[in-house]
Amino acid sequence: RGEWTRVRVEGWTRSPVAGAPAALSPSLLRAEPEAHKGESVEWTARFLALQRADPVRTDFTPGELYVLARDPAGEPGLVYIAVTPEQALRVKRLLPMQRFSFVGRVRVGASPLMGHPALELVDLRP
């Protein structure tokens, strides 16, 4: 009608993308390492270092960049967060022990090597 056209669209999206990140804790992920793959979390942690994965880290591809952080979601322990080269540019601005907030997607609740959660960075919050 006039300059308006009616359009109908139907589709599917993964729920973690459409909704708020799940309220998963690091201890719950470690207790159920495979149960929450692909789910999103929103945590605060302390930055330790930006690392490059070696072949023994089976939750990463060799050479993949990841953040090593501590005290995820206020719990003692560590978390590994895979980052893309583009995301690494922002990560490099973090100082050691600086608190940062992020949204991540669960790769595995407990890495085979060290037993800590391994995530993929979705968004680094200011």
Question: Secondary-structure blueprint of this entry?
Answer:
Elements (H helix, E strand, L loop, with lengths): L14 H4 L7 H6 L8 E13 L12 E6 L7 E6 L1 H7 L7 E10 L9 E8 L1
Parallel strand pairs: 3-5
Antiparallel strand pairs: 1-2, 1-4, 2-3, 4-5
Molecular structure report:
This protein is mainly beta. Helices cover 13% and strands 34% of the residues. It is built from three helices and five strands; from the N terminus they run ααβββαββ. The protein is globular, with a radius of gyration of 17 Å. It starts with 14 loop residues before the first helix and ends with a strand. The model has no long low-confidence stretch (mean pLDDT 90).
How much strand content do the residues show?
25-35%
Q: What is the end-to-end distance?
A: 45 Å
What is the radius of gyration computed over CA atoms, rounded to a whole number of angstroms?
17 Å
Spell out the helices and strands N to C: HHEEEHEE
- Helix percentage range: 10-25%
Q: In terms of per-residue confidence, which ranges show pLDDT below 50 for 5 or more consecutive residues?
A: none
Q: Helix/strand/pairing class, anyone?
A: mainly beta
Q: How are the strands ordered across the major sheet? A: 1-2-3-5-4
Put simply, the count of helices is: 3
Q: Sheet bearing the most strands, described?
A: 5 strands, mixed, barrel
Mean pLDDT across residues: 90
